[in-house]
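[Automated response] Your request has been received and processed.

Submitted sequence:
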Amino acid sequence: MIGYCTNVHAGDTIDEVVANLHNFSSAVQHQVGKQIEIGLWLPDNSLSEQTSDNLKECLDTLNLRVRSLNGFPFGNFHSNIVGRTVYEPTWCEEDRLTYTQKLATILSDLLPKNKSGSISTLPLGWGEGWDGDKRAAQMLMQCVDFLEELEQTSGQLIHLDIEPEPGCRLQTARNLAEFIQIQFDDDERIRRYIRVCHDTCHAAVMRENPRKSIDTYAQVGLSIGKVQLSSAVDVNFDSLGQEEKVVATEALRSVAEPRYLHQTTIVRDGVMKFYNNLPDAPLDQPVGHWRVHFHVPIHNESFGPLGTTRHDLLQSLLCLPDDDDTQWEVETYTWDVMPLEFQENELINSIASEINWANEQLHQVNFDE
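Generated structure:
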């Protein structure tokens, strides 16, 4: 079952979260025509002793189901400028552990009976200047202890799914696999409660081959706990005529907005260069094959005059696990910073179209098999 992540909706309090479920999530489910699973984003400010009760009442009223929480953004994900603050607090800090434990407790209350749950989380922290592997591993071990105890008392298995992202300490499958193996060796308990959140946009920006990524995780015993279906911006300037280059360059400038980081890779002559943010890349004289971390609707093969990495996403569907213990969701959170001329539809219809398209592709993959 494919759902979507509610981090696309602004909301810093529990009242705002509940209002979003009424105003958006329920309408998306109606548009899809069948029950979907909501990947809830709950900022730290929305968490209290009443959060579970408020959410259960709302979810029951709307016939919505939750098996996944997005525990990556800690604070206001829709402030004017988010930038690198989305990677704070890091996994070296107590606040990150406490926040994640609160989320796990809430999720255990919301899960359907006999169903596992997923909490996706950041890949430790931003990469530049990082020296916190040991401390982060200690904090993650404490989180595993908590999740094990929670399973014993509630009967609900909740796994923490680390999400590699460009520019972060863990930005590729290999980075994550090596971290787990070095810090935790072959500990099977770690593999039960720590898994992978595979974001198809992030992997595409880093030019990762889907099959090789899955194999890399398997080699160290890591499972895929969550799949975030998303596409990046893609444009090969070396294949464009002069007029097309001008149009594509202006389109890229229009998505270089200030709220989020838009990590960019450029490949030319077999060499990949990485830029922390799109405005840092050489937009004055663009050459080579560009990929930009800007989530675009997955059912679109193009984004205005720009391409997308939908092909990479489709390749991923051939090798990612399709079982009841892996959560799947669409995560196109950039809607309200997306240039208006590139928005093909209003938000609710766009999300529903993404979910329906993804379901169709998965059905085709399973049919072909």
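Summary generated for your ticket: The longest strand covers residues 289-296. The chain has one domain: 2-232+294-368.
If you did not submit this request, please reply to this message.
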